């Protein structure tokens, strides 16, 4: 009987302070700043702030075997303004090489690193390219005996981007009763209703009204919320649509929330506001990115009208957008966070 071949696991490094990332890690994030934005933006913000570090935040970097400082994967386990974020995983590698056999050693290395540094209930979900999420989930279950949730696919989406070269000129309506602008403190209560409405469609990450107000206030304080406001005769100003932009690096901004009040759908307020926000962001950024669920054709139609296009990491320059998946773990065992 032939001996079982030895499994060579790639080396990993664990960081609690992103300012200590070696240059090769920042270079890997910058290699594809659109795909890495979900990790890059938070790490860069914390590194730049130089404030006291939250011990709940950590990053795991997985290095290529025998390749010195070549980065294969960056994993983040961080906290957001409301609660813990999912496990996010980014790779600078092209998606078409991410086979099951290729992924197992680096994913196992990262899983064991996470096990050594955070309690297992902290890992409530993982969000990454489809193949990476699938392999992380199966490996995590094998190593911890924590199974997936009964309905494990929390989010399944494609990554789209918009640039100065792609954005479409859209004639914005000029009407004294319509205003598109950053949200202000006085808008907090109305904005909170939209935040609450968005979360009610984002199971299992549903906010209470109090949490939604806190989120709205935080977005306003950070200058991350944009609104479409309309005045109707005999009524108070109504905020009909919101756009949140919460992840920003030097070259990329990410739209992380778009929501229109149910009373104002089919009026193209979202299209106008998304275009308005993108046009302003692209005065300073090279691109704007967002995720759109595979089954949300109405939203994708809005983004395509603004001329968002597929973002692909495939070597063959495929026109198919990268597909990302969030898989959740057994909610009777884990502590659900929020993003």
Automatic annotation (TrEMBL):
Gene3D superfamilies from the UniProt entry: 3.40.630.30
Pfam families cross-referenced by the UniProt entry: Acetyltransf_1
GO molecular-function terms, A-Z: acyltransferase activity, transferring groups other than amino-acyl groups
Highest rank taxon of the organism: Eukaryota
PROSITE patterns cross-referenced by the UniProt entry: GNAT
Domain N-acetyltransferase, residue spans: 178-339
Name of the protein in question: N-acetyltransferase domain-containing protein
Upper taxonomic lineage: Eukaryota, Fungi, Dikarya, Basidiomycota, Agaricomycotina
